[in-house]
């Protein structure tokens, strides 16, 4: 039987140091290299071998500029400017859609998107502004084309009786004449009011003509309490060149001292010698008749007439007495 050797009989063991990897001498002055080539001071080398993590500034430089976005921005600004000019709307309407399309395309390209966003916003806003300017120009042109200027000739007897004493009186009368036709200084009865195609003259006004109106037609209803019927006599002459004739479409309204307007359209009453608004007239022809309007009895004489020779002419004011 074998026995473990006694301590005295055991072979003596010596402490042997662990083996170290061989060391190679480096030339003097050479920089020491890390043990692992892929690791340098906690930084890991990438494909470019720089050993540094790309920062925000490097990424920004890599993205570069979005040339398409810059072009879209410039085109949008120029188009917006032209869209605000009434005489150059067509240029703006051409450039703004182009800028819109370029801004959309630039979103799919590499580079910054700031100019692309700005171009998109400006092109949309510019289009809206261009539409508003277009409607403004059309409305102004329509008003200018279809609005007739109204002039007036005073009755002959008033013109003959006017006497000018001196230059000061002449200046005062000129100022008064310039303000005639307003609500504060209405034309006198008998004044001929003219537009491009019509001459209109208020030949007479009967403030209280209730009995005459009720006697004219059995279907004419009594005026409301506190009201009365007035009758306005009108004469119209056609001056236009419409070959098929033209119907007189004049308007006669009563404006009270408080500023309320009464036109008689709600009453539907037949006036004595009713003015025929459906009669076709040729150049030089005239027609006359009356218009009945229900007005407040109180302060009836304080009101004025608002008249227009035709539906496109401006309104002027004529006194009721």
What order do the helices and strands come in, and which of them pair?
Blueprint (H helix, E strand, L loop, with lengths): L38 E2 L2 E2 L11 H8 L3 H17 L5 H18 L7 H33 L4 E3 L2 H6 L5 H12 L13 E3 L3 E9 L3 H7 L10 E12 L12 E5 L5 E2 L23 E11 L7 E5 L7 E4 L2
Antiparallel strand pairs: 1-2, 3-4, 4-5, 5-6, 6-9, 7-8, 7-10, 10-11
Radius of gyration: 48 Å
When the domains are counted, the total is 2
- The global form is elongated
Q: Which residue ranges are poorly predicted, with pLDDT under 50 across at least 5 consecutive positions?
A: 35-51, 157-168
Strand order of the largest sheet: 3-4-5-6-9
H/E order of the elements?
EEHHHHEHHEEHEEEEEE
The third-level CATH topology of the largest domain is Immunoglobulin-like
Mean pLDDT: 78
Tell me the CATH architecture of the largest domain: Sandwich
CATH class of the largest domain: Mainly Beta
Which oligomeric state applies? single chain
Please report the distance between the alpha carbons of the first and last residues: 160 Å
Helix content: 25-40%
Please outline the major beta sheet.
Answer: 5 strands, antiparallel
Total count of helical runs of at least 4 residues: 7
